[in-house]
Design a protein that fits this description.
Blueprint: E1 10-14, H1 18-29, E2 33-38, E3 51-54, H2 60-68, E4 72-75, H3 82-89, H4 98-104, H5 107-116, E5 124-127, H6 130-139, E6 144-148, E7 158-161, H7 167-173, E8 179-183, E9 189-197, E10 203-205, E11 209-214, E12 217-223, H8 229-245, E13 250-258, E14 264-270, H9 280-283, H10 288-297, E15 310-317, H11 328-332, E16 337-341, E17 352-360, H12 363-375
Bound molecules: adenosine monophosphate.
């Protein structure tokens, strides 16, 4: 399909989390309807969409029925089975493609694909057997991170090792699941490039975002990234090469490490809008969610320009709820601070419940302001 999806059509989303919710808000603004397919009754997206199908993602008959009822299908999280995207693709275009999703679902496949494109990834070795564990020091002799190949997110399924001698124990702790051992990258900072590409090959990229993690979960995103100009240009070049090399149609985020010499190493690819791109809702002419709508619906991608010289985003995790519902009025009274809540009722520690954004002139001042605003929510 190369014709744009007509306004008023229904866009289908597999998954019903906050990314689906923010996608739906953007889609409505452009005159589309949205249907989500999720296995959760109280999915964050459900209140923001026109139709909510509740069924297991591997119920292929329901998936087929869903795909028949929409004009295009996308997904908002990565754990969608390949059989599901294949079942959907028989009845509606799936964007990005199920094959891209399949690649990104597995760290080994993803790194292999990057290597095949000649793109930089950390030194790594697949760990599938005790023999691989024994051979690991030849490839990753020093400190590293053992990561399960599949189903990992926000540091889940990861063990740091001080040397390859610790890999055997770490692998057992991960139940000997297929894994990759990555050499520890001595990065100066972490950045992400969020972009979109249409089916005609036109692509746009936001300027890199700088990301700070706490306990391996994204904590703050700061823009502009404080990296040398050549690293910034290289990050954009690498992102474009990933989009073109993998023929991505839709939105994706490329997470990268910036080394002290300005070189870039790709960490991972998210074939969907990304937490680090949430600030685009307030800080850019077109948000990453509107970009996703435009890219999958075959519309012009438009402008990814910022509306101000600097912006910061701070995640709000479930830990903030330890003393009950946080006192929202405090941040609502703060000038320039914008509150985004995902409508989740169950506030578990580490769970992403919402975020704050602040947009303005000076990045350092904004960072202080957002950190202070978030601290006001602690009781
Ligand atoms: P991931 O789940 O792969 O995105 O990893 C979560 C976070 O762990 C990253 O954002 C980094 O802060 C850190 N990390 C992951 N892999 C490496 C690595 N090979 N070297 C250094 N830090 C890493």
């Amino acid at each position: 399909m190369t014709q744009p999806v007509p306004r008023g059509s229904t866009l289908g989303v597999l998954g019903g989390g906050q990314l689906g919710r923010m996608f739906a808000l953007a889609a409505h603004r452009l005159g589309f309807r949205v249907a989500v397919f999720t296995d959760a009754e109280d999915a964050p997206a459900s209140l923001a969409v026109d139709r909510h199908v509740i069924a297991p993602l591997d119920d292929l008959d329901r998936v087929a029925e869903f795909a028949r009822s929409v004009s295009v299908v996308t997904f908002e999280f990565e754990n969608v089975p390949s059989a599901t995207t294949e079942a959907a693709a028989k009845f509606a275009p799936v964007r990005p493609s199920g094959s891209l999703l399949h690649t990104s679902q597995n760290r080994s496949r993803e790194k292999g694909a990057m290597r095949a494109l000649g793109l930089p990834v950390a030194t790594y070795v697949d760990i599938l057997s005790e023999d691989d564990v024994a051979r690991a020091p030849e490839i990753v002799p020093g400190a590293g991170i053992l990561k399960t190949a599949a189903w990992g997110y926000d540091g889940h399924g990861q063990r740091r090792v001080a040397s390859a001698a610790e890999v055997a124990d770490a692998w057992r702790e991960l139940d000997c699941q297929p894994a990759v051992l990555e050499g520890l990258v001595p990065f100066e900072c972490e950045v992400s490039v969020v972009g979109a590409r249409g089916h005609d090959g036109e692509a746009v990229f936001y300027d890199p975002f700088e990301n700070r993690h706490a306990n391996q979960i994204l904590d703050l995103t700061l823009w502009p990234a404080r990296v040398p100009e050549d690293a910034r240009a290289r990050a954009l070049e690498v992102a474009r090469a990933v989009f073109e090399g993998l023929d991505i149609v839709g939105v994706a985020c490329i997470e990268m490490f910036v080394l002290p010499d300005g070189e870039i190493v790709i960490n991972e690819i998210a074939p969907r809008p990304h937490n680090s791109g949430h600030l685009t809702i307030d800080a850019h002419v077109i948000s990453q969610f509107e970009l996703q709508v435009r890219a999958i619906a075959g519309l012009p991608l438009g402008s990814v320009e910022p509306v101000a010289p600097a912006a910061c985003m701070a995640n709000l995790l479930g830990d903030l709820w330890s003393g009950g519902e946080p006192p929202w009025d405090r941040v609502l009274a703060e000038p320039r601070v914008r509150l985004h809540l995902y409508g989740k009722t169950d506030a578990r520690p580490g769970r992403k419940m919402g975020h704050l954004t602040v947009v303005g002139e000076d990045r350092d001042a904004l960072e202080q302001r957002i950190v202070r605003a978030r601290a006001m929510l602690q009781t």
